């Protein structure tokens, strides 16, 4: 029954300018809740990180701006004559320590460990010479001892470690291990294992670079550590495979322990089959028993114990199938959509074009919901339910007023507005969704 | 483009067109009429052939005449943009002439298969004589590719008089001779027929034979002709079949460098970056025997890809080589009597 329940949008950050007026540096490139859900981090194309802090008030929860810092600067690789973008590809939180927040941020080449803490600033008062404006005191009775007076508290972000020069290709993922000591970083062809305390060395644990680069057919697209077993990690590839590796087996994990791949139906093979099978994002559920993967048209849920096919395959936007040719021409077919799984493992979420995104009930019990992260959502569109009740912007997928997936016309979709990056709160059903330069918070 | 994209989209992957019928609706592929670029289109009869000649400024009586010779498989419209640019720089003096040669474009007649070098040189001389009898004006000959060989021989053999300048576009004997064996493969790789004129234009642009869309829209329609099939549908096939002329190819280019260098006139060679000078031309260039211009941004049909650059080069080449106008100087400071 439709009632006031259901997903609704609660907040929006960022100026709601038209797409043509957006400054490229403001485009959000990654979103991540911390382990408690009290803090939310976003990274943008300009290399900045913005942190939001949760505050609970009587209306419910609200995220407020906490601090902002410049994480990465644009650089130039003189050897290859290439620019290194400052765009933040990923942010991963570490466990807080000593009232300070810690996180790893990375661009294409360099990973940095940041410490964010409150510092009490103190001012020096009772200066004897006042920077030369006063003459020295005539005798000792006029001598004043300088005092430190508390001024204000500021939030400072300090880079504690910089892990540089370990990747020849563009870093696409970082993942902190459950042992809180190590983390991995993955680029197109290699995965490295780091110790958080050591920034000048890393171990290479996966290398799929062919001897001759002209034979290149496959790249690594995402990687993640297992949430509880510190020896397992997985990585996904552009050929649609997900490989689970055990670091205890050998130093170089080129041999996978498990490989999750659904064999392709040869009847439906076409020019685009391989491109759309590329896995753009892969996540473990918080108990480590399931893997959620996203390729261009579908979302797949895998049971870790069953490799040959996913437990569930969900079509995200099948109406794009006839448009694949156009999407290849305008490069949209290469867009990398992220996926998210809720903390309790019951729901999955992923984005689409025209700022649409969908939330799926993985248990199969409830409805799937499709929403739109749009500035017009401010004026909460009221959709008439069957019993006269009005629900807010939620556009329930199974009809009852409002847009259904069946009604979407692929000719009228804005392919420049896409939901690529998002994060699910670890403990409740709250989503942070990035739409170009805006951040939307939705809550169930 | 990131590494993953480059696996799937290397630079030259050609997707099959969505649907050929959609081309006809594209405004950006619509053919352009010759009249946008030339003033006149006339028939000039020489011997057994009625040559179709495009021209502008035929009313002018003094000033230079730029005669353009297109290459094998092209037509006079390949020089449409360049000649318009040159003519517009001084429309009251300059005359530009761009014929369609034997077996090409709208030219008709007997013996259209005889594309031997001597025949083509005589044709060119015949056209110039017919259009400018008792010519007193300076002539600048501009030839592209095979047309360059024709104008070079025409100038060197003095079959055309009062040649002020000789310009060759993208033709070097050494490279041309080396590539002769590859030409049949190139011809076979072309589609035999096109579903529409717009399709043909689109193919030229996609295959990067012509990088300038406007020029393709002007020149491509003259390269194809409609054929009706049994079922009353129409397809468009090539106007000029190039394979039958194979026996003439070697003759066009042999001794070209020497002929070019020995021509008794000012000389200009315009090359896209893709060509290299052969030994004879290199020595001649070092000796200052001709002017060399490199336009690396262009493909083989430089005059279509970069019409303004080529126009500027040819205009300044002509201006630099104009004879001194003594009468003007004399008039400036009359001797006081």
UniProtKB/TrEMBL annotation, chain A:
Q: Which domain of life is it from?
A: Eukaryota
Record-linked SMART domains:
WD40
Q: Does the keyword Repeat apply?
A: yes
Q: Which GO terms describe its molecular function?
A: protein phosphatase regulator activity
Q: Which UniProt keywords apply?
A: Repeat, WD repeat
Recorded GO CC terms: protein phosphatase type 2A complex
- State whether keyword Cell division applies: no
* Disordered as annotated region, ranges: 384-407
Enumerate the Gene3D superfamilies for this protein. YVTN repeat-like/Quinoprotein amine dehydrogenase
Q: What family is it from?
A: Belongs to the phosphatase 2A regulatory subunit B family.
Record protein name field:
Protein phosphatase PP2A regulatory subunit B
**What is the species of this protein?**
Coemansia spiralis
Automatic annotation (TrEMBL), chain B:
Keyword check for Hydrolase: yes
Outline the segment boundaries, as ranges, of region: Disordered. 1-26
**Pfam families with a match to the protein in the record:** Abhydrolase_6
Query: Residue ranges of the AB hydrolase-1 domain?
Result: 66-310
The catalytic activity, as recorded, is:
[phosphatase 2A protein]-C-terminal L-leucine methyl ester + H2O = [phosphatase 2A protein]-C-terminal L-leucine + methanol + H(+)
Per the Swiss-Prot or TrEMBL record, the active site comprises 145, 170, 300
Query: What EC number(s) has UniProt assigned to this enzyme?
Result: 3.1.1.-
Keywords of the record: Hydrolase, Serine esterase
Which class of enzymes does this protein belong to?
Answer: hydrolase
- GO MF: protein methylesterase activity
Q: Which family does it belong to?
A: Belongs to the AB hydrolase superfamily.
What does the UniProt function comment say about this protein?
A: Demethylates proteins that have been reversibly carboxymethylated.
Q: What is this protein called?
A: Protein phosphatase methylesterase 1
Q: Which organism is it from?
A: Coemansia spiralis
Gene symbol of the encoding locus: PPE1
């Amino acid at each position: 029954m439709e009632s006031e329940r259901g997903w609704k949008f609660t907040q929006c950050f960022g100026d709601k300018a038209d797409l043509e007026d957006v400054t490229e540096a403001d485009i959000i490139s990654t979103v991540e809740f911390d382990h408690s859900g009290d803090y939310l981090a976003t990274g943008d194309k300009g290399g900045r990180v913005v942190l939001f802090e949760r505050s609970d008030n009587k209306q419910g929860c609200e995220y407020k701006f906490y601090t902002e810092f410049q994480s990465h600067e644009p650089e130039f690789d003189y050897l290859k004559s290439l620019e290194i973008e400052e765009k933040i590809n990923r942010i991963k939180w570490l466990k807080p320590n000593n009232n300070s927040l810690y996180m790893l941020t990375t661009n294409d080449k360099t990973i940095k460990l940041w410490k964010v803490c409150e510092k009490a600033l103190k001012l020096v008062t009772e200066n004897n010479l006042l920077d030369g404006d006063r003459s020295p005191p005539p005798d000792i009775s006029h001598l004043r001892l300088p005092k430190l007076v508390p001024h204000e508290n500021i939030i400072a972000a300090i880079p504690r470690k910089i892990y540089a020069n370990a990747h020849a290709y563009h870093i696409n993922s970082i993942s902190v291990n459950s042992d809180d000591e190590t983390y991995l970083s993955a680029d197109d062809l290699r995965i490295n294992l780091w110790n958080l305390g050591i920034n000048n060395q890393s171990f290479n644990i996966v290398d799929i670079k062919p001897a001759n680069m002209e034979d290149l057919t496959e790249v690594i697209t995402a990687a993640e550590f297992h949430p509880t077993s510190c020896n397992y990690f997985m990585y996904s590839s552009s050929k649609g495979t997900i490989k689970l590796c055990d670091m205890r087996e050998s130093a170089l994990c080129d041999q996978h322990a498990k490989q999750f791949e659904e064999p392709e139906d040869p009847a439906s093979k076409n020019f685009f089959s391989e491109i759309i099978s590329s896995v753009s994002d892969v996540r473990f559920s918080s108990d480590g028993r399931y893997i959620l993967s996203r390729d261009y048209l579908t979302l797949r849920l895998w049971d870790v114990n069953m490799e040959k096919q996913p437990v569930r395959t969900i079509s995200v936007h099948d109406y794009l199938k006839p448009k694949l040719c156009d999407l290849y021409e305008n490069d949209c077919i290469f867009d990398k959509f992220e996926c998210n799984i809720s903390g309790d493992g019951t729901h999955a979420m992923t984005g689409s074009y025209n700022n649409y995104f969908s939330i799926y009930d993985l248990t199969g019990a409830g409805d799937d919901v499709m929403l739109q992260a749009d500035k017009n959502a401010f004026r909460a569109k009221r959709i008439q339910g069957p019993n006269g009740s009005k629900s807010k912007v939620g556009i329930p997928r199974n009809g009852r007023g409002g847009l259904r997936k069946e009604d979407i016309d692929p000719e009228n979709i804005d392919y420049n507005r896409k939901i690529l990056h998002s994060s699910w709160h670890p403990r409740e059903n709250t989503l942070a969704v990035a739409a170009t330069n805006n951040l939307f918070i939705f809550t169930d | 483009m990131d590494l993953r994209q480059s696996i799937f989209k290397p630079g030259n992957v050609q997707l099959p067109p969505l649907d050929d019928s959609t081309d006809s609706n594209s405004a950006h592929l619509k053919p352009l009429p010759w009249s946008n670029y030339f003033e006149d289109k006339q028939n000039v009869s020489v011997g057994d052939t009625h040559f179709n000649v495009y021209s502008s400024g035929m009313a002018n009586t003094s000033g230079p005449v730029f005669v353009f010779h297109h290459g094998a498989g092209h037509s006079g419209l390949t020089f449409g943009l360049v000649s318009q640019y040159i003519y517009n720089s001084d429309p009251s003096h300059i005359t530009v002439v761009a014929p369609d040669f034997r077996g090409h474009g709208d030219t008709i007649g007997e013996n259209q298969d005889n594309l031997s070098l001597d025949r083509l040189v005589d044709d060119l001389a015949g056209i110039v004589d017919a259009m400018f009898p008792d010519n007193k004006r300076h002539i600048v000959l501009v030839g592209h590719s095979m047309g360059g060989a024709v104008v070079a021989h025409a100038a060197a053999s003095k079959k055309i008089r009062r040649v002020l300048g000789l310009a060759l576009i993208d033709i070097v004997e050494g490279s041309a001779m080396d590539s002769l064996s590859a030409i049949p493969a190139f011809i076979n790789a072309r589609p035999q027929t096109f579903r529409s004129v717009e399709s043909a234009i689109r193919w030229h642009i996609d295959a990067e034979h012509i990088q300038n869309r406007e020029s393709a829209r002007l020149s491509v329609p003259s390269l194809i002709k409609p054929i009706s099939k049994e079922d009353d549908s129409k397809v468009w096939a090539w106007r000029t079949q190039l394979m039958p002329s194979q026996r003439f190819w070697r003759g066009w280019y042999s001794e070209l460098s020497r002929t070019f260098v020995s021509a008794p006139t000012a000389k200009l060679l315009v090359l896209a970056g893709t060509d290299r000078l052969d030994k004879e031309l290199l020595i001649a260039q070092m000796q200052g025997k001709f002017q060399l211009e490199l336009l690396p941004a262009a493909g083989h049909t430089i005059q279509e890809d970069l019409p303004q650059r080529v126009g500027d080069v040819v205009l300044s080449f002509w201006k630099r080589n104009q004879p001194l106008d003594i009468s003007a100087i004399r008039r400036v400071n009359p001797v006081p009597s």
